[in-house]
Amino acid sequence: QIPKQSKQWYQRRVAITAGEKDINKTSAKLAHTLEIDDRVQQFTTQQCFITLKDHKSNFRNNPQCRLINPAKNELGKISKKITDDKITEILSSINTSLNLWKNTAQVIEWFNTSPKGEKSRFIQFDIVEFYPSITEQLLDKAIDFASQYTTISEQDINIIKHAKNSLLFHHGTGWEKKDRTFDVTMGSYDGAETCELVGLYMLHQLQQIMPPHLIGLYRDDGLAMIPAANGPKMDKLRKQIGSVFKKEGLKITVTTNLVEVNFLDVTLNAVNGRYCPYRKPNDHPLYINAQSNHPPNIIKQLPKMITKRLSDISCDAEEFNKAKGAYEQALRSSGYDEKMEYIEKTSNPADSKVRRKRTRNIIWYNPPYSLNVTTNIGKKFLWLLAKHFPRGHRLNKIFNKNTVKLSYSCLPNVSTILNSTRSQRTVEEKEDRMCNCRNKAKCPISGECLKTAVVYEATLQTEETQYQYIGLTEHTFKARYNAHKSSFNNENQRLSTELSKKVWELKEQRVPYNLKWTILRHGQPYRGGMRACDLCLTEKLCILTSKHENLLNKRREILNKCRHMNKLLLKKCL
Fold first, then answer.
1. Cβ contacts of residue 525 below 8 Å, gap of 6+?
2. What is the phi/psi pair of residue 2, to 5°?
3. Do 406 and 382 touch, CB atoms closer than 8 A?
4. Torsion (CA) 330, 334, 337, 341 in degrees, nearest 10
5. Beta bridge partners of 405
6. Distance of alpha carbon 117 from the chain centroid
7. Could you report the per-residue pLDDT of 512-565, keeping only the tens digit for each?
């Protein structure tokens, strides 16, 4: 069930399909204007889930959670790009000095330039349930503020606001925000960027009570450094900060008069100016094993990356050595022998040589890595690139070693594979009726003709030769079997498959034949939001690994695009 913390924001929706259609129809119109409706998919209806905030104090008595909604509007990718570009333009503007942090390095840079001393104190605040608290009115105010520093077209505004129309799905039940579908969800493409845009607006509002260089925001976490602080002054600032957020419909928790504060993954001290790494109490480092099935470069660089990260968030070697014990132990437990040593920071990064920044369009090839593959895929790929696009070729400027890069991707771990298998098995268990043939003895697949999402094999047997054909179906096998029978009987369908071509060839030569059907593999049908079609990849794998001498499938079928994705394109909604 959806937790109590989420039920205060959401209500059940009766007509789920109608809500999806409205969102998809508007998305299709916007995508058609951008001429991308032929490659952008419809609204995905994935199940929501929660993550527990078990690091919070008093968690046992008052458990809290985050509601993650993977059901996404694909136009959110465009909204993310638009919003991120506008935020960058605002921050680079000479008219603003707002501190919107994107990482720990920027927080440390701000801390190093802030006034520190015996009377300096921190104010730390947290925006309670920031994502669901953002209303359409608050987003409009943030957009109006951003328009003072950058140009935002009407089309950009429509895309940004439409990407917030969202529905929640849980065990077949639809939920929506109370009285509206406008919702900034955790898990959406542009959720973080929307929070940053609203955060910029709130920082602008806070300028009324304190200088902008003394306060900053990382999404829903805020931090301010107050020099020459005293009790009455800090209490007054606490009330003023709360009032600014309350005016915009946001609730915050504020802690004042802090000498030391834990912010993101670093601990800051306002008196002595020192900082060191911070981990939540129940956060224990865990790394991939040195013998795991990962690209060698990742395994080789992992200890160096951890050492570099720990050095960056430590003010000196003393703090580094205090914190490194847990990380070294985690590395040893994962099979690494390297020792961690502090990396000195450059005295003045500005003095280092500035590299030329030149934008270049890079095409990335990301083959999956596996220790079971002995072929050097990267070397072969670059060799093919140089062979087919040599110097002087008209496409060499597009396809060369400088514009085409290779980086291995990681295969799913065992847990992911097992979970997908379990979900597939659950679907199969629901299919109680596996055959509806009147005469079970004549069932083409031995009582399993109603199975769905399968890769099947047709064995065509003559007196002299045996042929093999591999196919797939997303629907029931029986429906696909009937389509094959129709192509065998109607000459105008003889070219529909390689199997029907061969059958008609044998019929014209008056050669008798027999057909035997077998299910080879089960797969997952393509759903919105999936990176690849498991069913099509399974069929291609069966074709590639087939050792039959008379395979009817053509090798070019391996390069065919998944046809199951087409039914989910936005152009189908116009």
1. 452, 453, 474, 533, 534, 535, 564
2. -70, 130
3. yes
4. -30
5. 364
6. 43
7. 999 999 999 998 888 877 878 999 999 999 999 999 999 999 988 888 888 888
Instruction: Determine contact, residues 28/36, Cβ cutoff 8 Å.
Output: no
DSSP 360: -
Strand pairing of 215-218 and 221-226?
A: antiparallel
Cα separation, 287 vs 333, whole angstroms: 9
Burial status of residue 74 (CB atoms within 10 A of its CB: 0-12, 13-18, 19 or more): buried
- Average pLDDT on 22-29 reads 90
Residues 6+ apart with CB under 8 A from 388: 399
Report how far residue 525's alpha carbon sits from residue 475's, in angstroms, rounded to the nearest whole number: 9
- What's the farthest any 2 CA atoms get from each other in the chain? 102
Cα–Cα distance measured from residue 520 to residue 532, given in angstroms and rounded to the nearest whole number: 20
Predicted confidence (pLDDT) per residue in 171-211, tens digit: 777 777 776 678 888 888 999 999 999 999 999 999 989 99
555 vs 542: CA distance, rounded Å = 12
Q: Which residues pair with 173 in a beta bridge?
A: 170
State whether the Cα torsion 295-368-534-527 is positive or negative.
positive
What rounded mean pLDDT belongs to the chain?
87
Find residue 363's DSSP bridge partners: 404
Residue with tokens 């934008």, as numbered in its chain: 359
**One-letter amino acid identity for 221?**
D
The Cα–Cα gap between 229 and 214 comes to: 13
User: What are the structure tokens assigned to 50, written together?
Assistant: 């929660």
Q: What three-state secondary structure class fits 168?
A: strand
